[in-house]
Design goal:
Number of helices of chain A: 0
Strand content of chain A: over 45%
Shape of chain A: globular
Number of strands of chain A: 9
Distance between the termini of chain B: 31 Å
Helix content of chain B: under 10%
Largest sheet of chain A: 5 strands, mixed
Helix content of chain A: under 10%
Distance between the termini of chain A: 38 Å
Low-confidence stretches of chain A: none
Largest interface: A-B, 22 and 24 residues
Radius of gyration of chain B: 13 Å
Mean pLDDT of chain B: 92
Largest sheet of chain B: 7 strands, mixed
Mean pLDDT of chain A: 90
Oligomer: heterodimer
Shape of chain B: globular
Strand order of the largest sheet of chain A: 1-9-8-3-4
């Protein structure tokens, strides 16, 4: 499995877009990029995933670079409830989490 | 939540006793996972399964075994519980059609 690297923490103002980067330079061709978040002690919540193309759903957008070595999760209008730990994972079969990014959304 | 349940939700047990945690899903998904989460360590993969009777080790598999005799159930067993296995245990599945992933509510295990 490819190793992913994320900044340990980020801040964002409420109502602004939160852009969370992830580096996965060793990703293989069949590994998907997945994003999750975890709030307090709840189980991780699936957000979005993609292979090559950019993806968008009701929660977020995922931008994957053409060489697939990095990606960005975009929360278009962050709210206080988006404060959480966000995990970026390269997945094919075996799902291993890194340390994630603590996103703090402030008023 | 993709129909994932975990049982028990809370358990306190003594060192040296066997413990089995159950993960149950209702939608016949192929991939299932067991994680533990501890302060300062994030989520660590214990074991995973890619089908009935097909399992493999994760990064922290020592002291744990798993079984999957039916698609819907993935069991995690601590043969002889130790205090270092006090943790919150999460089960997860990957959906077979869209490859979305969902986690169960977690089991809080305390080994005294």
């Amino acid at each position: 499995d490819a190793k992913t690297t994320q900044p340990p923490s980020m801040d964002c103002a409420e109502g602004r877009a939160a852009n969370l980067p992830c580096n996965h330079s060793t990703i293989s061709g069949n590994e998907y990029v997945y994003w999750y978040r975890q709030i307090h002690s709840q189980g991780p919540q699936y957000i979005i995933h993609g292979l090559k193309n950019n993806e968008t759903n009701e929660m977020a957008s995922l931008i994957i670079t053409e060489d697939r070595k990095s990606s960005t999760l975009i929360l278009p209008h962050a709210t206080l409830r988006d404060t959480a730990v966000y995990y970026c994972i390269a997945f094919y079969g075996k799902l291993t989490f890194g340390q994630g990014t603590i996103l703090t959304v402030h008023p | 939540d993709a129909g994932i349940t975990q049982s028990p939700r809370h358990k306190v047990t003594e060192t040296g006793t066997p413990v089995t945690l159950r993960c149950h899903q209702t939608e016949n998904h192929r991939y299932m996972y067991w994680y533990r989460q501890d302060p300062g360590h994030g989520l660590r993969l214990i074991h995973y399964s890619y089908g009935v009777k097909d399992t493999d080790k994760g990064e922290v598999s020592d002291g744990y075994s798993v079984s999957r005799s039916k698609t819907e159930d993935f069991l995690l067993t601590l043969e002889s519980a130790t205090s270092s296995q006090t943790s919150v245990y999460f089960c997860a599945i990957v959906t077979s059609d869209s490859y979305e992933q969902y986690f169960g509510p977690g089991t809080r295990l305390t080994v005294t």
